[in-house]
Structures are given as structure tokens and as C-alpha cells.
Amino acid sequence: MLDLLGTLERTHTCGELRAADAGKEVVLLGWVNRRRDHGNLIFLDLRDRTGIAQVVLDKDLGAEAHLKAEQARPEYVIAAIGKVRLRGKDVINPKMPTGEVEIVASEIRLLNDSKVPPFSPAEDAIGNEEVRLKYRYLDLRRPEMQHNFAVRHKVALAVRQYLSSQGFYEIETPFMTRSTPEGARDYLVPSRVHAGEFYALPQSPQLFKQILMISGFDRYFQIARCFRDEDLRADRQPEFTQIDLEMTFPQQQTVFRVVEGFLAAAFAAVGIKLPTPFPQITYDEAMRQFGIDKPDLRLPGLTDVKFAFAANDLETLAISPGLPIVAVRIPKVGELSRKERDDNRPLFDSRKGAKLIDDLKRLEKSFPDAVNKIREVTGAQSDDLVVLVAGDATAQLRMSDTKSAGRLSEREIAVYSAAGNFRVELARKYAVRHGAFAVTEQVVGSPERDAGQVDGSAAFRPIWVTDFPMFELDEETGRWMPSHHPFTSPHEEDMDRLVSDPASVRARYYDLAMNGLELGSGSIRIHQKAVQQEIFRALGMSDEEAKSRFGFFLEALEYGTPPHGGIALGLDRLVMILAGASSLREVIAFPKTAKAIDLMVDAPTPVSDMQLRELHIRTALKS
RNA sequence: GGGGACGUAGCUCAGUUGGUUAGAGCGCUGCCCUGUCACGGCAGAGGUCGCGGGUUCGAGCCCCGUCGUCCCCGCCA
């Protein structure tokens, strides 16, 4: 028989009781985490969001309460009414925050029972994502998940407070909008009223926020849901949340200061000091130093070692003399065995003409001076792993090697990124040995975070990457594509090369990377209609096409559009970093599987013919 | 669209060269137990080996197909 709550009210949460509360009459409400039944003495661990408290039932002190406790099972919802008591010295549990006290219950009410759960929220070790996602409410009861969402809440709140203090208005934009067939695939919403027509869910509020600037709101932000119908990854969900902001009259640095401000506030909210300002690097420099546009600064970058070789060395080694030679150094990994090197070979991408030299010992036999210089210039300690990446002189490639004004050529980028990606792979594989990632885990898991400010300067390494190329060549179509989106402003002094040398045009586009993850990207936008039209043309879009897709926006640009710019940061990814999680699913309450299915509500589903008829839709499925 | 890993009790997993009645730990049920906190002790229940087909005297194990979960490539302006 279940009991009624009646007029009972909670006096304390389970996690808050301390020695100072001894003697208080309390009412605790929560879930039975565990029951330890000693016969005439029963211990119930009562759990709520705040923690766990031990409730004691002594048959001699109350047979009725004891009987209720005997009936209680894991995940029953109960009320424990009684008195807080200091535990005896020998039965204090130092592992629990509430371990110095216990509640001697005079009454237990069983408010609800529970089937035996498919897995226990009380257990630390949890597997099988399928079961976790199906019974998501049980999974979310686990303290770890509760913690992740506490972090998420605190971060979102800190961001709102900071941005509000800087004059930003939070303004919502529509979920049902128009499809703009660039970029990712849209999720579509059929219109009942307009047969055969569809709304699209926004991939981002991009054009709306620009129009809010045209509308004179000066500074806008939104914690905005975005939708992209593309295949999933551990760090990609079909719907995700961005901290989206836009402001009028910004310099790039203005945007940076705002973002640094709210990130520092967000980190502070979870007890971590994040130093500002963040370092900045241009895209070209990032490629040269890290071989990737989202550098992980927790490990050393690439080192240019071309100087160490003479021209005929390169010939002997079949290395392209015109391409860079860089060293990848991973500290403390030690010398690799033949087998380890063979195992690592598939992690190296040689498809675009990059060549890996991973046996420095062997190289040293023929080129002792070169290897010496390399060890010196990379600052390699004796237990550091060093490998070389260069251009393969024997590679047959149909890739343009034309350099445009001062920028990296495609083949140079190919060598750098082969090295950069290999660096990331090695870093991931040998994380235990180099220990650079453990620093982050330590800070994330540090219990001192609640008390005060933990130094995050070594654990979290943000960096701004600036001056991306305006366009990228689409290898399939041979068309120039915008690196970011077509509303990004080119550098004013590069404008005259839009047609003559598009590859050399730099965009006022910037990324924020942290620990090798892309956290966000933004740009200073185009605010003059003529420039916007020119960009559309450079992208191979006819004026008619531009008008039919973005006519409303081009028109808005005609009515006094102020210079403006902004950025969007992935809230889910940010929380993932701060929670020390390895998947977005750990920080999204109701995520979808890799096939974009919600296992709890079982979505998507077929709908009735009636519904389809109203929407003027017929499915093309073969039955 | 492609590649890889996994799928055996409610959960985590073992299962040898294809061979009799498929195991362990946790959980669950019952009984015992007054200081446990991953309580302990005794006894017990619990299996469509993801699903379908094939090979074989015989399949959890081999083959083909299929479904699901995860990771990656493509994709994600």
C-alpha cells in the first residue's frame, strides 16, 4: 500500500545536511538509492538532485516505520520524517558530504513504488547507450548527468547575465522560416494552408540576426536552437544549441572582447579561472604551426625543419624541394617499436602527396647532422616522439600548385594538414603517455571547483583563428564556395582581387578553437548591397538566382544597413568540455542516436493518411 | 552512400577446433542478520544466444542477408 503525501513539505534537501544540523526535525523527500537491511536495523540511502542522506530505521524505536522501510525498494519515492543525529565516531562515512550525520526516522511514507529498473541510477558504471536512451529519465537521475545539466544551466545563466550587462537584448527568431538551399540539408515543415509549400527549420538565425542589426537593436543575442539534417557524430546532433550574437559597428576585436568576457564568466560560474584575452593566430599561421584550423595548444605545434636538409638530401629521400618539411613532436611518448609504427601508418593521410618519415633512428644513420638539428630546433627531450612530414616527390597529383598572392598553396596545405591531423591522432592515441589531456580532466573533475576558483590556464587553451580564405574551391564542381557563409565580408584591401584571384582574398571571418575543438565561428558581415551582390556573383550565382533566394535580404540592405558582425558558439560543445564529456549526448537531455532517432519517444514515426492529406503530401515509399 | 566495432540472463560480460543440460559478477525473489554505507550469510528464479535463411548428423560459434547501437570517412556554407 502506498501512502499519501498529505500536507507534508520538504524541510531540507538530501545533500545539504551537515553536523551543524544535528538535532533538527526534518522532512526529506527523494528516491531510495540503496537499502541495507540488517534485520531489525535498516539503512536507506535517500537521493535527490543535491546528494544522498542516510536514513536509519531501528525496529525498537518504531516498528511501523521499520516495516515501511522493509517494503521500500530501489527507486521508490519516499518521505523520511525524523531527527538529524550525529553519527558515532566509528561510523562516520568520510566519502559522503553528509557522512557525519544520519536521519533517525520516526515515520516513512512510501509515496510511489518503482518497477525494478533496467539499470540502476545508483551504479557508477553504466553501459549500453540504447538502454540509457530508451529509459532516459532513469539515466538522467544519475548524479553525473545531474551534474552535467547543472553545469549547462550555470553556463547559460552566466552568458545571459554577462551579455545583458554589455547591452545585448535577447530576441527570439522564428523556427519556421524559409529554406535557403545552401549549406546543410534543411528540415522541412509542410504547410497546410499553402499546398506544396514548406517552411524550413533554421540552420542558424543568420539572416534574422543581421536584419535585427538593420532594425537598430544594436546588440542582439539568443541561445538558439539550430537544425541541420546531416549525418551525426559524437559532437554533432541534428538539433543543437548556439550562443548566437550580433552587434553593430564592431571591429573584429570588439567581438573577441565580448566573447572572452562571457566565456570567462561562464567558466567562473563553474569555478574555473580562464585568463583573457585569448591568443590570436591567422589561418595561414595556424596551418603552418599546427596543420589545422582548430589548434590544440596543449601540445607543441609543428616545427619547420627544412633548413636541416641539403638539396641532395631531399633528392635521396624523394622529398619535394618546393614543399614544407615539418616535425611533429609529442612529448614523453618514447621511441616507438616497429609494430607501433606500422599500426600508426593508417592514421597518416598520404592521399594528397604527403610523405611520413616516422623512423628517426633510421634516418639518423644516413643523415646524422640533419636529425641532430631537428632534435635541437624542436626542443625534443630524449623521451619525446618526433616524426617528419614532407611532400612526396614521387606523388602523382592533379592538384593546382599555383600560389596566389602570399597565401598557402593547395599542396603546401596538404602537407601541413597531413602533419596536423597525424599530430592529433598521435596525441589522442598516446594521451596516457604525454599526459597533456589529463590536465583538463583534472580541472574538470576537481572537487575544489565548488569552493573557489581553479586555475584553468593549462587545461583550457582557447585561440582565435583569423583571416580565413574567403573562398574554397569545390573539387567536384570546380566552383568557388564561401569558406564561411556568403554574408561574410572580405578584407577591404583584398576586394579588388575578388575576380582576378579569388584564392588570395581574405575574409573577415574568425573561429574560436579550444583544445582542438571548434567552439564557434563568426565574421564581420557585408553591409553594402553592391558588395553582397558582387560576392554572390563571385560564387557563380546569377543576379536572378540571388534575388529569388535572398531578395528580401538584399532589399533590407538598401535601407541604411549599419556595419555589423557577430559570432555563434556551440553551447553543447562548450558544456561538453566543461563537463568532461566525450559525447554531446551527455549534455543534451533528450538526444538522438547516430541514425537521428529518439529512442525514448520513438521518433520519427509514420503519420496517418489523414494528416498527410491535410498537408497535401503523398509519400513515395515502395511498399 | 562507404568502412570498422559490438549485439549471449534485467545490466556488465565469459563461452576453447562446431559436440551432451549455455556460465560468472551485479541486480532480482525468499529466509536470516542491530552499525551498514558496493553491508553480510543461505537458498532460489531468470535465456527466442538481435532477427531471417543456409551449411552440417549437430550451430551461440561457420556462411549469406537483415535490423539495432557506437566510432570514423563522405556530408555538416
From TrEMBL:
Reaction catalysed by this enzyme: tRNA(Asx) + L-aspartate + ATP = L-aspartyl-tRNA(Asx) + AMP + diphosphate
GO biological process: aspartyl-tRNA aminoacylation
EC assignment: 6.1.1.23
One term of GO molecular function: aspartate-tRNA(Asn) ligase activity
Main location: cytoplasm
Subcellular location: Cytoplasm
Keywords: Aminoacyl-tRNA synthetase, ATP-binding, Cytoplasm, Ligase, Nucleotide-binding, Protein biosynthesis
Residues the record marks as site: Important for tRNA non-discrimination: H38
Aspartate: annotated span: 206-209
Residues where ATP binds: R228, D229, E230, Q237, E518, G570, L571, D572, R573
InterPro entries xref list: Aa-tRNA-synt_II, aa-tRNA-synth_II, aa-tRNA-synth_II/BPL/LPL, Asp-tRNA-ligase_1, Asp-tRNA-ligase_1_N, Asp/Asn-tRNA-synth_IIb, AspRS_core, GAD-like_sf
Quaternary context: Homodimer.
Family as reported in the entry's similarity comment: Belongs to the class-II aminoacyl-tRNA synthetase family. Type 1 subfamily.
Name of the featured protein: Aspartate--tRNA(Asp/Asn) ligase
